[in-house]
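Limitations

Structures in this collection are predictions, not experimental determinations, and the ligand pose is part of the prediction. Treat each record accordingly. The example that follows, with tetrahydrodeoxyuridine as the small molecule, is included so readers can see exactly what is and is not provided: the inputs are given verbatim, and the output is the predicted complex.
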Amino acid sequence: MADASTLESLRAAALAAMEHAYAPYSHFRVGAALLTPDGEIVAGCNVENAAYPSGMCAERVAMGAAIVRGLRHFTHVVVATEAGTPTPPCGMCRQVLQELAPGCRVISVTRGGAEAEWPLADLLPYPFDTSSLRDE
Ligand code: THU
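Predicted complex:
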């Protein structure tokens, strides 16, 4: 279980990453920060593109940044936005979190200080995963 100051650092990392979001099309800036069991934090932001489907969500940018650092296990992810109410990750990001952070807790914060939290299992109750490939 992450302590309060670690979670506060995770919130701060997600909010700081949001400031770097490249979102000239949606103007919906998102930051994300992943926490490893060892307390390492890796952040990402959304990166949009003139070819709209080429854009990437903050959570998947953070996941890629973590993988390239050799990190493979995550206990928490914080998503930060400027929305009025906390927003959960999109469906594609839920699926990507399921791959390497299946038991993680998803915390969503707004710049205004609102917060919500869900277990990933509640957001993606019937995941397609490696066991699906083996038809177990
Ligand atoms: N977005 C994220 O970065 N994460 C999510 O979980 C939801 C959506 C981004 C994608 C796009 O750049 C913008 O928010 C609007 O959908």
